Amino acid sequence: MVAVATSEQRQSYSIRLGTHASCVQEIEQQQCCRKLNLSIMETGTLEACVPRLSQFCKMGFYAKHIFPRLLDWALGNPQMGKYRRRALEAAYGNTLEIGFGTGLNLPYYPQAVTQLTALDPENMLAKRVAKRIKESPVPVTFVQLDASGRLPFADATFDSVVTTFTLCSIDRVSAALSEMHRVVKPEGVYLFFEHGRSRDPRTARRQDRFNPIQNVIGCGCHVNRPIDALITTADFHIETLEEFMMPKTPQIMAAMYKGIARKLSIKN
Q1: Is 244 helix (H, G, I), strand (E, B) or coil?
Q2: CA dist., res. 261 & res. 233, Å (int)
Q3: Which of 37, 60, 101, 160 is paired with 241 by a 20 to 30 Å CA distance?
Q4: pTM for the full model?
Q5: Does residue 160 fall inside a structural domain?
Q6: For position 139, which CATH number holds?
Q7: Cβ atoms of residues 70 and 219 within 8 Å
Q8: Domain span at 127
């Protein structure tokens, strides 16, 4: 819901922030925070108010303005760039990236990639992303589309398919993986760099308990998905798999899966 400011509020915010657009953003942010506090007070716990919070976190100020910037900041540091470069080094030819986000992978694609089709259900930080696409040495075609449905590409179109920090947030992830299997060439590769379910039972139980909250504050992100099992269930053979704990990261978010998979068989 867009807040309607009184004339006094408009004058106060305009003096302090300088523009009408900025004043509307601040009023929206304050209303979002008031809704969060009210929901917690009424239900007693954050877990109990998850269903109520979900709607306005995914559709309001937070999802449009705050979460994309948090994501870009948290996943765009130089150390993460080193992991991205390693994860993408086997990409080549005509490549499809599912879950393009804010385009953080672009500087790390190798020269062997000749064309990139970037797919994402959102157009986050549009001006920033447009600048990154313009500066990319790889030709990029951006497609705003949910990967859970039928992809608008013929069978065996791509030499490489890439996901990074993506399988956690696709609603129908098994359907999306099935589509990736369909559009990658028989000799092609699927490269993944994902966070997921911990091998430690105690941490995994904590992930299960925290997941409903993360699903809200992470705009659909799941911390407890078994990444390798999801990939192999989609008829991919995991050729190489590196599992590690991301340094300086909370345990429930730190279990990482990085690898290369190929088609186990051609699905009908």
Answers
A1: strand
A2: 12
A3: 101
A4: 0.78
A5: yes
A6: 3.40.50.150
A7: no
A8: 77-263
Supply 218's token pair: 């992470």
Q: Report the helix count and the strand count for the chain, using DSSP H and E.
A: 11, 7
268 within a domain of the structure (yes/no):
no
* Cα–Cα distance measured from residue 79 to residue 13, given in angstroms and rounded to the nearest whole number: 39
User: Where are the extended beta strands (E) located within 42-108?
Assistant: 93-98
Are 217 and 112 in the same domain?
yes
Do residue 36 and residue 166 come from a single domain?
no
Hunting for tokens 């130089």 — which residue is that? 78
Number of C-beta neighbours around residue 107 at 10 A: 15
Q: What is the pLDDT along the chain (268 residues), one digit of tens a residue?
A: 333 344 444 343 333 333 333 333 333 344 444 444 444 444 445 455 455 555 555 557 788 888 889 989 999 999 999 999 999 999 999 999 999 999 999 999 999 999 999 999 999 899 999 999 999 999 999 999 999 999 999 999 999 999 999 999 999 999 999 999 999 999 999 999 999 999 999 999 999 999 999 998 898 999 999 999 999 999 999 999 999 999 999 999 999 999 999 998 644 4
CA count, 13 A, side-chain hemisphere, 259: 19
Task: Give the type of residue at 149.
Answer: G
